[in-house]
Amino acid sequence: METFGAVLIAMLVLGGPLIWAMVLNLRDRREARLLSTVLAELSGPDLRGRVAIGVRAGLLGAPSVVKIHLLCASRQEIWEILGRLSERLSRRVRLEVTGPVERPLAATFTFVPALSGRMLGA
To answer: What pLDDT sits at residue 32?
Structure first.
């Protein structure tokens, strides 16, 4: 019985940090995939130098956030970006596009996809 207890304690001491490192690795990989998806959509020459992107992947199933800040963007450009990225990103990703929209103050457009039809009133 003492041997079983010692093995169990050794598994907890060594396995805990190993599992935590694996969870952090999965989060970092998810963050890299999100960033590459966003960069693939926003790599056009018209947006070069006008876009700042921030990606934060959630830990252990928490929703991820993609923040995009545009300089000198029209409403039409912001809506086009929202439309393109909403088709490519997972439904568990919140998309925020911020930029000065035809005035000096910045406006934020947030796209949070519905998880089911009941949320849409269907």
So the answer is: 93
